[in-house]
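Backbone-to-sequence.
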């Protein structure tokens, strides 16, 4: 099994010293990878990204929006909203981040590797077709999914988003696209306020959006239960040809802005479940893309743990530990989904 990694120093140039989404996030991952020595393994392939083309970006975002974003960056940048910034290097970083996602999908589907992790930034899942928000400029995972469908000829792509925040941009982009199943587990109520259970897609895509809003304070047990009883059965029923993961690590218990209590081991367990599902339904073709995660020790540990899963390595000790407090139950949302979501009902026999 060969696992690819793609990253680039251009991603570091998009940074703001006092912002939680800054270059140090990727530098912390680099330090963790160096310590783990995973990059030196014979079954690790290091890929070089490229810039996403205009046509690849415009398959997701409006041309006018992209031109405005590019011009804003070239003029020196600033704040696009209270959460989202650009500097003079941000446009290039964003275009190469989207291109890194595309390159990884291309490598997996062309059998250069079995699976891979695109360590890109700025993140993307909040970016809508015509708006930057939530630290996100270009929706990397959406660009990659559209590339798989429109250029590489796939008919069904699934996206699983376990970032602590709902990926409103990814949902908006594919809300009427029956070829993409979007599944999100997220804290609710929480930013950006979307991702309600009854947001399920529209038109021919009714049912192709699966939102699992979770009470604040859910941890390993609740997430694993949701994956076991909802996400995995639904993916198995839907039979994607490619599985894409919006890998946000801000549900870790130590995250400064996330209200959940998942551990590094919990993330590894979720990733293993998704990899096992991909092996079952789509020949193991799985691509992870970095989204959130703002505790530097945690994001490094989580990325290394996820890569170890992709490589088929055993889990190592979680040196950051776990939270032992009781978790809110998730049975209620599972029962509601079984009653009100057509894909979940079909997958679970409801």
């Amino acid at each position: 099994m060969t696992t690819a990694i793609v990253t680039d120093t251009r991603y570091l140039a998009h940074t703001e010293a006092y912002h939680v989404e800054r270059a140090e996030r990727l530098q912390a991952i680099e330090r963790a990878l160096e310590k783990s020595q995973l990059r030196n393994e014979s079954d690790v392939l290091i890929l070089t990204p490229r810039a996403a083309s205009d046509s690849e970006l415009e398959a997701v975002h409006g041309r006018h929006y992209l031109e405005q974003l590019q011009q804003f960056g070239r003029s020196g940048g600033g704040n696009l909203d209270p959460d989202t910034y650009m500097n003079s290097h941000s446009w290039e970083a964003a275009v190469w981040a989207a291109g890194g996602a595309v390159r990884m999908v291309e490598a997996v589907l062309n059998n250069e590797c079995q699976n891979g992790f695109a360590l890109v930034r700025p993140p993307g899942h909040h970016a809508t077709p015509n708006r930057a928000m939530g630290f996100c400029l270009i929706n990397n995972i959406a660009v990659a999914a559209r590339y798989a469908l429109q250029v590489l000829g796939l008919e069904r792509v699934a996206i699983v988003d376990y970032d602590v925040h709902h990926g409103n941009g990814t949902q908006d982009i594919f809300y009427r696209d029956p070829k993409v199943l979007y599944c999100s587990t997220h804290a609710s109520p929480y930013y950006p306020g979307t991702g309600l259970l009854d947001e399920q897609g529209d038109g021919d895509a009714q049912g192709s959006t699966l939102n699992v809003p979770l009470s604040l304070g859910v941890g390993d047990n609740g997430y694993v239960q949701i994956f076991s009883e909802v996400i995995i059965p639904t993916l198995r029923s839907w039979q994607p040809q490619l599985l894409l993961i919006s890998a946000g690590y801000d549900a870790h218990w130590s995250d400064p802005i996330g209200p959940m209590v998942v551990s590094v081991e919990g993330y590894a367990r979720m990733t293993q479940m998704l990899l096992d599902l991909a092996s079952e339904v789509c020949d193991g073709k799985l691509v992870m893309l970095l989204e959130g995660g703002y505790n530097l020790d945690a994001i490094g540990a989580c990325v290394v743990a996820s890569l170890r899963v992709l490589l088929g390595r055993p889990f190592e000790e979680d040196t950051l530990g776990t939270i032992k407090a009781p978790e809110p139950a998730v049975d209620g949302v599972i029962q509601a989904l079984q009653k009100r979501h057509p894909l979940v009902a079909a997958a679970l026999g409801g």
